[in-house]
Write a structure and sequence with these properties.
Helices cover 78% and strands 0% of the residues. The chain is mainly α. It has one domain. Helix 2 runs antiparallel to helix 4, helix 4 packs parallel to helix 7 and helix 10 packs antiparallel against helix 11.
Amino acid sequence: MGGLLTAEWRKTRSTKLWWGLLIPICLLSALINVFGGALAISGAFGSGGLADQAVVLAMATALSLGGILVVVFGIVSVSGEFRHRTITTTYLTGGTRTSVLVVKSVFAAAVGAAYAMAIELVGIGAALLGQGSASFGDPGRLAVLCVMGVVVLATWAVFGVLFGALVSNLLAAVISALTYLLIVENVLQAVLASSRAAVAGYLLPGEAPGAALISYALGGRSSRVYNDIPPWPAALLAFAVYTVVLGAVGWAISQRRDVT
C-alpha cells in the first residue's frame, strides 16, 4: 500500500490540479472571512445575532463552499486515469482494483484534509486582518468547527473518488457533479422550502455537509437565512450514509468495468 500511496503522491505532484484548486479555495476563504462581520451584522444569526460569532459562521461558509472544489479533485484522481489511459497500468501494479480504490480514497482524504486546514489558516488570518480578535467569540467553538471542517472535506474528497469510480468519463463526471451540486440541488432545495419541507433540502447529498457546519456554527441560535436547518449530527449522518452507498455502488461498478 505504501508504494501505491507514493505513486498517487507523484501523480498529484506532477500535475497542476492540486494548486489550481488550492488557489481559488484560499482566495474564497480570505474573501469570506475578511467580511465575516458583515455576515453576522446583516442578520445571518437572526435577531439574536452578534458580530462576536462572525468568524465561526464565516469559516463554516468557506469550508462548505470549499467542499465543491475538493470533490473535483477526488473525481479527477480516478476519472483522469481513464482519460489518459493509465488506469490499466495502475490496476496491474496495484494488486487488486479494490486496493487501488482504497488507496486513492485514503490519499484523496489526506488532500481534502490539507485543503481544509489551508482554508482555516487563511481564514483565521483574514478574519484577524478584517475584523480583529473581537469577532472570534468562543475559541473552543471555532476549534471544534475546524476539526469538523477537516473531517467534512476529507469525506468530500473520498466522495469524489467514489463518484469518479462510478462515472469513468472525466468530462461527464465533472460536469454532472457540478451541475447537480450547483444547479439541481438548489432547485430541489427551493422546491422543498416552498412546500414547507426545508429540512429535507438540507439533507440532500450536496447540502448535508455544509448544513452540518453551518448548524454547528449557529449553535442553536435563530436564523432568518438558514431556516429549519437540521441539527449538525443528523446532517453529518446523512452525508456519511450517502458516501457509504456511493462507495458500494462505485466499488461494484469498478470491479466489472472493462478497461482495455
